[in-house]
């Protein structure tokens, strides 16, 4: 499920990144959340329980739901390959949403696209 490209602007050379090795858990379902992630390189699998619901690649975001509704993580994120991530704190997220309407729209489009895919699974 590839989201519209468009988050690459957040992965420039001067941003702080976090490297995660293939097979490592980035976050677990039910854990508290204080950041979302933009994938700079590599692949990340999102799963609920033992069921994979998405595999994401560069320029995609994940972990945004918990910043929007302040609930614990709704899924587990695992590095499929070695990945380089750009963490976006809640403070940075709120700044981006308030100062960059296009960023907010991109996040909403990503959420809507993922919801449509999930709804098809229940049809």
TrEMBL record:
Superkingdom of the source species: Bacteria
Ranges for domain Cyclic nucleotide-binding: 13-114
InterPro entries referenced in this protein's UniProt entry, alphabetically: cNMP-bd_CS, cNMP-bd_dom, cNMP-bd_dom_sf, Env_Response_Regulators, RmlC-like_jellyroll
Name the UniProt record assigns to this protein: Cyclic nucleotide-binding domain-containing protein
Pfam families listed in its UniProt record: cNMP_binding (PF00027)
């Amino acid at each position: 499920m590839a989201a519209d490209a468009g988050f690459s602007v957040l992965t420039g050379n001067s941003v702080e990144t976090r490297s995660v090795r293939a097979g490592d858990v980035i976050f677990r379902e039910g854990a508290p959340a204080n950041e979302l992630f933009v994938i700079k390189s590599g692949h990340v699998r999102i799963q609920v329980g033992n069921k994979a619901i998405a595999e994401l690649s560069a320029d995609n975001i994940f972990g945004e739901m918990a910043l929007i509704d302040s609930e614990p993580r709704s899924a587990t994120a695992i590095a499929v390959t070695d990945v380089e991530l750009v963490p976006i704190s809640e403070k940075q997220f709120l700044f981006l949403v308030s100062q960059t309407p296009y960023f907010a729209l991109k996040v909403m489009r990503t959420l809507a696209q993922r919801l449509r895919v999930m709804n098809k699974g229940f049809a």
